[in-house]
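Posted in: Structural Biology > Protein-Ligand Complexes

Title: Requesting predicted complex, guanosine-5'-triphosphate in pocket

I'd be grateful if someone could produce the 3D structure tokens for the following input. Sequence and ligand are given below.
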Amino acid sequence: MVATIEQIRWPDSQYLVGEGKLEEIAKLAKERGAIKLIFNNRLKSKQAYNIAKKTGLEAIDRFQLILEVFTHRASTTEAKLQIRLARVRYEVAHAKEKVRLARLGEQPGFRGLGAYEVDIYYEAVKRQINSIRDKLKKIKKKRSLHRMRRKELGFSSVSLAGYTYAGKSTLFNLLAKESVPTGEGLFTTLSTTTRFVELSGERVLLTDTVGFIERLPVDLMDAFRSTLEETTFSDLILLVVDAGEPLQTIQRKISICFDTIEKIGAYGIPLVVALNKIDLLSESEVQQRTEILREITSNIIPVSALENRNINALKQQLSKFLKNRVRAKISLPVSDETLSFVSWIFSQANVKCVEYEADQVKVTFEAVSNFANNVLGRMKDIGGSLIELSDQEYGS
Ligand SMILES: Nc1nc2c(ncn2[C@@H]2O[C@H](COP(=O)(O)OP(=O)(O)OP(=O)(O)O)[C@@H](O)[C@H]2O)c(=O)[nH]1
Ligand SMILES: [Mg+2]
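-- Reply #1 --
Done. Output follows.
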């Protein structure tokens, strides 16, 4: 990045920024040798075209920038397909506007196509979208079979989560004695990797996955939903937070992570926070930050993945959470809400038995105690009741 310019005003329909501002930007870009203009707000195709014509530089917006980074990073088939899906969907959304502009003669013909060819183009794109979706579905199915198999075998699972660049993969490599790529900038990881790790003598499954970011564009959020959703199938979330940033940034990013966790439907899953990169701070700073952040979330363990510091304490905390399993039997009134509630329990807990009776459903499940508490809370909300609860330790 060679320069940043800010303007506060209503978006200009021609150039997004004001014309005078654009001239200033063009001059600065030339002085500093910029090769591209990146706009934080969404750019319409017409605006991008006008800006490029006026400045001689390519203009992209935040979505396109993130897409470029993702494209550059994608190494697995799934990540590549998800990006293609996001790209095609984005293109279709803009195609309509391009067609309109072409008809108005404001922009050269849309891919040089007439009205008839435009219809053919839409058809082709629709087919392309469907074919990508089919391929993604197959990958998702395969993953879900793997997951079911693991569940049958009774292993607990932990998912790494956190803002991009927080150090998830570094921690994953340390815990799983692996070597997935780390630290080549933002979004180094775009798909999931699962490995066994040993926690206090017990084997559990640890999954590394894609990082979160503020205002992740909807198309990308949709395209990456199945990767993001992997987190919802775990018994515990290990949220990695970069402690080296200013306190306000840390707090903002934690709150974005909480929002994202809720959005992907992983709410209610117990959470342990690894306050990472403490090697960048003094001891008193670490203490101070840990205390302040404890007010937002209670289970915080300061660590350094890079320098292997305090990792045993983290492991102990994780295994404490996972060991603490309970078995509960609940009764629920029959309703639409109950059905979706039961399928939610299915996706999160080890369901042992479901009995359907005339006007109620009885569900027996095993889960870590924090999760079981969440189930019991929601159960009350929909008018259910607890039949039996035992908190002896069940095998993980
Ligand atoms: N100083 C310091 N740097 C760390 C630590 N852990 C990770 N890093 C660095 O932080 C950067 C990002 O690390 P990654 O492990 O790739 O982060 P990530 O969360 O997996 O990032 P994405 O996959 O891009 O979302 C790398 O340069 C790491 O070397 C740590 O404990 N201390
Ligand atoms: Mg990573």
